[in-house]
Design goal:
The complex is a heterodimer. Chain A is mainly alpha-helical. Chain A is built from four helices and no strands. Chain A has a domain of 61 residues. The N and C termini of chain A lie far apart (58 Å). By secondary structure, chain B is mainly alpha-helical. In chain B, helix 2 runs antiparallel to helix 3. Classes of the chains: A mainly alpha, B mainly alpha.
Chain lengths: 127, 140
Amino acid sequence: MINPITDHALVALAAAGSPHDSAAAPPPDLTGWELAAENALFLVVDAGIVALSIAFLMCLHRLVTGPTLVDRGIASDTLAMQVVGLAILLTIRMRTLMFFDAVLIISILGFASTVAFAQFIARRRSA
Amino acid sequence: MNTLDGFTLRALFDLASAAVLAGGLFFMVVGALGVVRLPDAYNRIHAASICVTLGLSAMLLAACFHLGAAPIIMKSIITVTFIFVATPIGSHMLAKAAHDTHQPQWAKTLSDEFAEDKARFGWADPAPADGDAAAEPHAA
């Protein structure tokens, strides 16, 4: 379709067979408008994978070279949210429900890590 | 022959999904940009929490538009509810911890009402930051 790399991954995944994609199997025949709309969506998704990867690298830069501990906490929180965004993009691109459970789990883990980070920063002096 | 022949609901949903997804990605990238570029920790908390909340909500809406299956919609509602509750709480805790440990503020910060309230009401203030090199104020 558009991106040869993700198409190879799609073919490999279809050959492996995924048990959960029965709810979202692609319809056999798409008319002109439907095909054009889906190609536009997949173009946005492919651009979004690149954009989120760049955002991921920027947050990683802040995580490594953050001047204070609070900056590292913010960067790790934002990093978890970028991973959630990548999981959503993968869900849209592959039309499967496999990766969507990871969305809620990573959100909860990111919130828990942020709270733990805040507690650690607040109690570090008095402990 | 109408030009809009074949413009079905599926095509409309895919186009709406692309538009909403582009907006969500914009917010996500702007949030990451704010985390990198803003001058101090408090500004970075502001950028990260708001932009990421909006961006993730829009991206989940895009997934609902494209896939339209009941499990996706249900989990999206749960996730959006959780994000709208959890992200402000986490950001608030981080900001409070940063203020309690006297993290450096930007040189052009206009007001610090939390410090004024701490001084006025005599709220318990933890010990000031020790000689940690990372916690020293830096000129912006």
